[in-house]
Amino acid sequence: MxxxxxxxxxxxxxxxxxxxxxSLTKSLKTGRELDExxxxxxxxxxxxxxxxxxxxxxxxxxxxxxxxxxxxxxDSGNDSSENIAxxxxxxxxxxxxxxxxxxxxxxxxxxxxxxxxxxxxxxKGKKVWPGxxxxxxxxxxxxxxxxxxxxxxxxxxGTAFLLPQIEVExxxxxxxxxxxxxxxxxxxxGTSEQFHGELKSDxxxxxxxxxxxxxNSLILKSAMxxxxxxRKIGCDLLSFPEDLPVKLDVTRRRIGSVMRNIVGxxxxxxxxxGCMQLKIGVSCPWLNPFKRxxxxxx
Length: 298
Known about the structure:
Elements: E1 3-8, H1 18-24, H2 31-35, H3 48-60, E2 71-74, H4 81-86, E3 94-98, H5 106-116, E4 120-123, E5 126-137, E6 141-154, E7 160-173, H6 179-202, H7 213-237, H8 255-263, E8 267-272, E9 275-281, H9 287-297
Parallel strand pairs: 1-9, 2-3
Antiparallel strand pairs: 3-7, 4-5, 5-6, 6-7, 8-9
Helix pairs in contact: 1-9, 3-7, 7-8
């Protein structure tokens, strides 16, 4: 039975936007595999596929009250030989640890950079030397250090400094690749933390329900598609800015915003003439993008 979306002036309940999330789950090729799973002592009255899809609705709304239902990137606070040595104990452990320069001289590092790095001049008055050296770490041995040293003799407008300004960034790592790529990969840590924050705070997956690893593993694996569904909805929303009730100068929408604007849309589900209808308030500012998303997924 097909579902149609209509306007209405009736009193509505929230989370009508789960219809959009539900239509997206049709692209998940998990139903057959889940239904093939059998239990020796009972046959479920509700299919495993339906249970799984129902569960996806909880984190998609940011509700994970379960009673109702190896690259390491570390900041300079972790710069110690003991921490670096820990990575030697396991294979396939890769790391980038920002070094704490402590009392190391910036002038000496600039000399090291000039000797071991390749000079770039992005503008007049600014020179950059990315490069690498190796130093011994107790308990680990020879360890790669990638660095970037900057010397500025003037600001962006061309005003000269009385004394050159020196900046130095250094990182321990066992990754291969260009120093610039390693440094950029470390800086991406801040971006990934934003996604971690959305998973934990917006979707409520910070607290896991069980002391058993297998149970929590199932929860986390279920949270992945539940995270990606509103993420895709947010990306698709930005593809038709002319229909949005607000002007957005962004490259992505937070999970929480998608939950409030689309998943949390109030609706009423009715049946009439062999057709199911989802009625949404005429004053809902997100009705047009909601209907457009729903039509594109069905």
